[in-house]
Amino acid sequence: QVQLVEHGGGLAEAGGSLRLSCAASGYIPTFNTLGWYRQAPGNQREMVAFVDHNGTPTYSDSVKGRFSISRSDAENTVYLQMDSLESEDTAVYYCSLRSLSNDEIFWGPGTQVTVSS
Description:
Blueprint: E1 2-7, E2 10-13, E3 18-26, E4 32-39, E5 46-51, E6 57-59, E7 67-72, E8 77-82, E9 91-99, E10 105-107, E11 111-116
Parallel strand pairs: 2-11
Antiparallel strand pairs: 1-3, 3-8, 4-5, 4-9, 5-6, 7-8, 9-10, 9-11
């Protein structure tokens, strides 16, 4: 079983920055993809960014050029640097880990990000 805990959410002004982190613990699959998803009120959960076990990132069009995802396998942590924040970025952000061996997905409890315009 994998446990994920997010940190770094909070309130930011439009145009500002926040940095999220997510620490994984437990039995962590050797080959995995780490990602960030978000869910705004009334909306479905959507992918924000993910990074594969080689460190290759993928971003949604809505955050490309503004957000940056990275991982530290030594620390079992994934980061999301969010710059040029917009009010539309307001959501609960969830960390995820997907095992490449069996496609099982684990989720963190989420952290609130609120951007004031």
